[in-house]
């Protein structure tokens, strides 16, 4: 059945306004754009901009923090000046420009003047990417508090059931967009592209999210004529801030002992503000006080996109027929969320309740924080296993000597300080830095008396002169067949590589071409391939996601239940602020600690969260749950009684005045009669 909405613009299909379908598609595309870009961001910093792990992590968390600070600005602009619709449009344009800037910043050919695959003007790429990230943070954060609320505005009061269904679908789109993007964009990043030289295609990995953001904007604009657009009515956060500011200023003005103390410091705002507003702010401040320890959870949680992704680059991602990219491990988070939320709500929580345990929201949040700490303990244990497989590299104060015996007999080499080394024939002791992105560094040494041409489908090593070696070339994991040519003679040589290894392949002087030529080749493994499997990260992802479900979902539910009817946006802003502060804590702790070992940093963060968890549990123990509706009703009743008393006083006054007027009238009549007589 097709009917008209009350404003005469938006049609309704199956009980739902058509306008919400545009909003749902818009949200899916926007979330795909954001999470897709964010999934590959830290690897873009490390491998394209060539930053070290610490700088890449710092900038990543600064960006995430900005994304959770700007929603407060977006909410104020939408509620006070532009309205939700215009705010979404304008900031989405800013958002799309930022995504395009990121895609352009990842095109290496723009400044690759010598065409070697490496940008020659890295400053251009850094500046453009930072501008892009700032615009993205402003856009995604600014529209975050507007889109869901704007969707809710499309429903009439009698469509409460449809509104609830809309929000369920809305959050399903968030997780769906996140899941698909974290699968697809790492695959795009793994492709090679370029005009002059083929390199990892970060431009494509950022370009597709940029295209989806443009689609998101276009879809939202297309539905413009069908939306119900509520006018801005003022932002409650500004009123709250003004009231708190007045209370503090008034309390400071009356700090003398001559003035009697008041029950609560917010009571000093009674001279100017309504008592109900003050009571509502007291309820909000009570919850915000509980928020103080919460940023530490987000400090750990958001490192799954930085430290954990970097950890995965040193691991083996071979799952049989499927090869997982390091940044694809993040997909376990949305998959587990979609799985664990219904399991928790329908199985775990009811089972705990049946056992007679009062598992209150604050207790759930405490357990969630503890699970996040356990996740980082798991990450630290995994890192210890990884460190055992890494080669020992020389420090900045040390040097490295490479010895190569190209002869057929063992050599004895005498080094300073009476140090003797025995070199077997055709052996090398060569340690270099670990190859990045899971690639394998391969080079050939030609021990023949003639030139040797070495090539494979992916790389051409070129002509190697006698008794010299080729440069290292990077090859992906898997089987590779090399063609060894000398004149008209040919040898096909096949070897299978893992992840992150380094090999020197010797062609000895005794090498003979023929069907068994591969047996004469000597392979020296300089750096072992990544042997710790990425599957070992699954427990830490499970624990952090279980912690998120118990902490984040429950925390939002708790905040909503404890917030006054007109203050829910204030607590939402406070919740988002804890995420921003948590990301800033990553920068502070990492900068102060400066731990050389990653496993030690993981254990440090776990210890800090356990300490905060204990503090929060104590605060939660002394917290008293309230019913904001009941408190507001009491104030309304008191106000009604005061109004009734005021009306009674006014009624009595009017009666008294009327009575006096009647007496005066009689006196006047008598005087008139006397005058007549």
Automatic annotation (TrEMBL):
InterPro entries documented for this protein: MFS_trans_sf, POT_fam, PTR2_symporter_CS
Subcellular location: Apical cell membrane; Cell membrane; Membrane
Catalytic reaction equation(s): an L-amino acid tripeptide(out) + H(+)(out) = an L-amino acid tripeptide(in) + H(+)(in); glycyl-sarcosine(out) + H(+)(out) = glycyl-sarcosine(in) + H(+)(in); glycyl-L-aspartate(out) + 2 H(+)(out) = glycyl-L-aspartate(in) + 2 H(+)(in); glycylglycyl-L-isoleucine(out) + H(+)(out) = glycylglycyl-L-isoleucine(in) + H(+)(in)
Pfam families: PTR2 (PF00854)
Xref: Gene3D superfamilies: MFS general substrate transporter like domains
Main location: membrane
GO-annotated molecular function: symporter activity
Bilayer topology annotation: Multi-pass membrane protein
Tagged with keyword Ribosomal protein: no
A biological-process GO annotation: oligopeptide transport
Domain of life: Eukaryota
Annotated spans, Disordered: 635-677
Segments passing through the bilayer: 12-35, 55-76, 88-110, 122-143, 164-184, 204-228, 283-301, 332-352, 364-386, 569-590, 602-623
Chloroplast keyword on record: no
Signal sequence coordinates: none
Biased composition (Basic and acidic residues): 647-658
Function noted in UniProt: Electrogenic proton-coupled amino-acid transporter that transports oligopeptides of 2 to 4 amino acids with a preference for dipeptides. Transports neutral and monovalently charged peptides with a proton to peptide stoichiometry of 1:1 or 2:1. Primarily responsible for the absorption of dietary di- and tripeptides from the small intestinal lumen. Mediates transepithelial transport of muramyl and N-formylated bacterial dipeptides contributing to recognition of pathogenic bacteria by the mucosal immune system.
Family matches, as PANTHER family: OLIGOPEPTIDE TRANSPORTER-RELATED
Similarity section: Belongs to the major facilitator superfamily. Proton-dependent oligopeptide transporter (POT/PTR) (TC 2.A.17) family.
Name recorded for this polypeptide: Solute carrier family 15 member 1
Species of the source: Oryzias latipes (Japanese rice fish)
